[in-house]
Amino acid sequence: MAIGNFIAGRWRPAERTYSRKNPALPDQVVAEYPLSGRQEAMEAFRAAAAAFPAWRQVPIIERARILQRAARYLSEHLESIARDLAVEVGKPIFEARAEVRRAAEIFEYYAAWAWHPQGFLLASARPGTELRARRVPLGVVALITPWNFPIAIPAWKLAPALLLGNTVVLKPSTLGPCGAVHLVRALEAAGLPSGVLNLVIGPGTPFGQALREVEDLRAVSFTGSVDTGFQLKAALADRPVRLQLELGGKNPFVVWEDADLREAARLAAEGAFFYAGQKCTATSRVIVHRAVYSEFREAFLEAIGRLKIGDPLDEATRVGPLIDAAARENVQRWVKRGLEEGGRILIGGRPLDPGYLYEPTVLEGVPPTASIAQEEIFGPVVTLHPASDLEEAIAMANAVRYGLSASIATRRLDVAEAFLSGVEAGIVHVNQPTAGVEYQAPFGGVKQSGYGPKEQGWSALDFYSDWKTLVVRV
To answer: Which residues form a coiled coil (predicted)?
Structure first.
């Protein structure tokens, strides 16, 4: 199936295309997508700039009703969209369904904000004067999204941006554009005016060139790798452009001596290996109190052994394929490096067929300073580390350049509170997997895991709008 760009309200056939293949069955072509360049990106930005004056004047409640209609479209087409996600990016079908449902709920959530107060009436020190503050849109915003959450991440960027009156150019990853395509179709069906949302599919370099040239650009929200994120930051450093970066993670799961070890093992296994560990919030280090290390290790390996590996369309599958051959080769290199750094494999360590499957893999014996315990792998690989006390566990959890998500399994409130206070992460869990967030709360990391205002919840409203203060003598 050939899919084009969506610019100025029209689906445009592409002059050059590439084939996206099924990572579970690499000989199967899923879709033909555009290989867009700078020209297509500039056309999209011009369309967004032209649409902004009219869109900002549409009442916010009408903008919200468009989001509500789009949410209903997603719900009505949930099963077919979920299957597309599963086939294109290898996401197990149970997670794909949950992601589509979440995208619909995100649209509903932000639509509801239209019925909240949109500003403030403040007391003025001057007689006969009203002091008001109200939100206003920024203008043209660019959204750059990854392949691993192909519909949820575009949804949680798009919904607040559109609700607040901005116009958008959306560029999804070439490895998984289908979620963005479905969102555009939903909003098109919901009656979104032409030019308000534009979709450009293609490689990042020409799109980045366009970003540097567009005079009307007011904000960029990017989710992806640390290196690319900071390159983008440098490229826009001399521009008055707001920037939001959601980057990588090296997320610790701590198991304390009082924890329910079987439950902790399940949480660690699910957080590390569902979707083959291809989540920025996935568990990649498990830190265990020495008193229960051996017992937990046994329970952890048993929990991993119960995870079904295979076809993403199989309802029982929990570990699907990696996104492509390069990703599997990267995982294999990291496992080899872990062995060179003194590690030993407790389970896994091998690629599987068909497709780009890789066994869930656990290594122990590597020092916390080893590169395999320091750098994001983005695959089904975990290192296991003992800790003697809470101070050591927290220090180990913090001893990386990332700070996205962390979790601890414990029954003790004092231990939980000490961990919540001491760990350096944007999202901290107790008795939950490191993976998994809720859209009504701010989401984002610290250190090199993020830059700028947080996504989701009320925090997103502040990123996609500005405050105008009005001083009126009456």
So the answer is: none
Say how far residue 316 (Cα) sits from the centre of its chain.
Answer: 24
> Quick check: 114 and 339 in contact, CB under 8 A?
no
- At 182, the amino acid letter reads H
Q: Are residues 185 and 66 in the same domain?
A: yes
Query: Which residue is catalytic, options 40, 88, 105, 246?
Result: 246
Residue 463 sits in a domain whose CATH number is 3.40.605.10
124 occurs within a structural domain: yes
User: With 80 as the cut, is the pLDDT of residue 262 above it?
Assistant: yes
Whether the per-residue pLDDT at 288 is higher than 90: the answer is yes
146-158 confidence digits (pLDDT tens):
999 999 999 999 9
- 204 CB-near residues (< 8 Å, 6+ apart): 144, 171, 228
Enter the DSSP assignment of 388.
Answer: S
User: 382 lies in a domain?
Assistant: yes
Structural domain range at position 115:
5-247+449-473
Distance between CA atoms of residues 37 and 1, nearest Å: 21
Q: How many domains does the chain have?
A: 2
Confidence (pLDDT) at 1: 67
Whether the predicted pLDDT of 381 surpasses 90 = yes
Same domain, 469 and 411: no
CA angle at 240 for the pair 234 and 243, rounded to the nearest 5°: 55
Q: Compute and round to an integer the Cα radius of gyration of the chain.
A: 23
Whether residues 25 and 172 fall in one domain = yes
What predicted TM-score, i.e. pTM, was given to this entire model?
A: 0.97
**Residue 156: which of 180, 175, 188 has the closest Cα?**
180
CB–CB of 268/259 below 8 Å? no
What is the per-residue pLDDT for 2? 79
Q: Indicate if 239 and 290 belong to the same structural domain.
A: no
What's the confidence (pLDDT) of residue 7?
Answer: 98
- pLDDT for 436 equals 87
pLDDT at 412 over 90: yes
Amino acid at 274: F
Q: Based on the domain organization, do 73 and 184 belong to the same domain?
A: yes
Q: Rounded distance, CA 456 to CA 199, Å?
A: 21
Both 453 and 363 in a single domain? no
- pLDDT-derived band at 72, boundaries 50, 70, 90: very high
Active site residue 246: yes
Q: What one-character DSSP code corresponds to residue 228?
A: H
Checking DSSP bridges between strand 361-364 and strand 140-145, what pairing results, if any?
Answer: unpaired
Residue 444 lies in a domain: no
Q: Judge whether 437 lies within some domain.
A: no
- Measured between alpha carbons, how far is 444 from 240 in angstroms, rounded to an integer? 22
CB-neighbour burial class of residue 52 (10 A; exposed 0-12, middle 13-18, buried 19+): buried
Number of neighbours of residue 363 by Cβ within 10 angstroms:
25
| Cα-to-chain-centroid distance, residue 378 | 13
